[in-house]
Predict the structure.
Amino acid sequence: MLAMTAVIVVLVYRLAVVSRDHFTGVLAAELITTASQFLDTMLEFRPDVPVSLCFLTSLVLAIGASRAGRWNVAAVTFILSGLALGGALMFKQKSVFVLPGFRRRAARVCSEGLAQHRRTARADLSACGDFKTVGRPFFVDPERVDLHLQL
């Protein structure tokens, strides 16, 4: 579990670097490693550890696919991202709530082509904005992971 925890910290760093810059990555990695609840949960033998690992891997791959140079490379990277997300789903079924956001982003990239996608990526709303009623689940869109930094 310790090795998986170290990989999770590296993925959090990578995710922050891809979203913003190096300083944000260092800050995110330090904040997650100093959080006592994170360390308590990640050092136990629980399904949360591989779920976090698979979900973060899938998120980093999905963002990499969104920024890939060719649409066929993006499609292959989205397939790998989907496999990682499937691994998260196998460990804990609560991971199903992120599937609509990932499906939406993958369909948009693959159908429009990469040049059109890059122009509209920032204008695309996350899937959670489409649900107005209380009780609807929260869905994650990989392109909007930096929403908290814009507030």
Residues 45-150 form one domain. DSSP finds eight helices and no strands in the chain.
